[in-house]
Amino acid sequence: MTGAAVGVIAVLALLLFGTGFLLGRTARPVRPSDVGTPVEHATFETLHTASLAAPPLRAGLTEESARRSARRLRSLLGTDALCLTDRDRVLVWDGEGDHHGTDVMQHVRELLASGRDTAFRTDCGDLDCPLRWAVAVPLTVDHRVLGTLVAYAPRESAVLARAAGEVALWVCVQLELAELDRSRTQLIEAEIKALRAQISPHFVFNSLAAIASFVRTDPEQARELLLEFADFTRYSFRKHGEFTTLADELHSIDQYLALVRARFGERLSVTLQVAPEVLPVALPFLCLQPLVENAVKHGLEGAVTRSRITISALDAGAEAEVVIEDDGTGMEPERLRRILRGEGGASTGIGLLNVDERLRQVYGDDYGLVIETGVGAGMRITLRLPKYRAGVHGS
Fold this sequence. Notes:
Blueprint: H1 3-25, H2 38-57, H3 63-77, E1 81-85, E2 90-95, H4 104-114, E3 118-121, E4 133-141, E5 144-153, H5 158-198, H6 201-217, H7 219-236, E6 243-245, H8 246-264, E7 268-274, E8 282-284, H9 289-300, E9 307-316, E10 319-326, H10 333-340, H11 350-363, E11 370-373, E12 379-386
Parallel strand pairs: 7-9
Antiparallel strand pairs: 1-2, 1-5, 3-4, 4-5, 6-8, 9-10, 10-12, 11-12
Helix pairs in contact: 1-2, 1-5, 2-3, 5-11, 6-7, 6-8, 7-8
């Protein structure tokens, strides 16, 4: 069952559970200022409480997330006490009778192994303690039991057992989303590492060789190029933020091209056309540099003696349109299609494929690369960037 399907089930369960169970236990009278029926009030309060418990759980099952969500989860169940555990220990106890926390792991040991709900009597010797019965439910993500939710009550209750199962299912949805967020972050980091690997050792070697060639003939030029190289590598290997601004990305490209021009001299001509109003637009980090590197590579490969590269970033209403064009050798359209399908081989077109996939992941399939090429016709790469998109902020 997918996370989305589980989420729908959990929400429906909470609606049913909230309208019945909460109505049965709520003692707050309906105020004249309230709007809606008692059932609507119960539904709203249930969903509101669930919405407050969700954000902490999106960080995964930790002591901090358990502490911040436990009170809300106990409120959903309307029970005397609740605890959350991982596989090794109690993460949080909320409510009365916290002395029972010392034997929770003993009661849930079999549950952690089997993944099946369990109920047990507390056998408490304290006559003043109201906790006489408990139900424990596994918290499972991808068939792995991460921990348990244990609800305590004065007496055995089939209603509480079912409600605990539904709330635990909802918690599992949040933990599954946390896992997806973590996987997405790891994927993005892996993609950026792949792009960094594309900054060819040959480029580093050739850049340093070009700088060295100016040390005696033009020391000031060598110094400037060395600073450009340092800034370019510092930006390319920075460790914070998956997004950047168009201004920073274009600045890094300018440094890259300064190093390339130091090597190729008049063989390479670059024209930049940038509208100031698009400079603050956010985009995925290291999104343009691989495209420019591709233009340099294909623009100067083979017997080409001189190449022109044009880079433009223009205002297009709600979007910024970036175009990178070279007049080099180009390629067969079918070969390009294979590259964008990931069939180009381990070292072919990684930059193009990587950037195309990241754009589609962030903005949707309508925002992949648009590439026009042909043998001997150069290559024109166009990408559109929404000026504003939730969750996309330059850093």
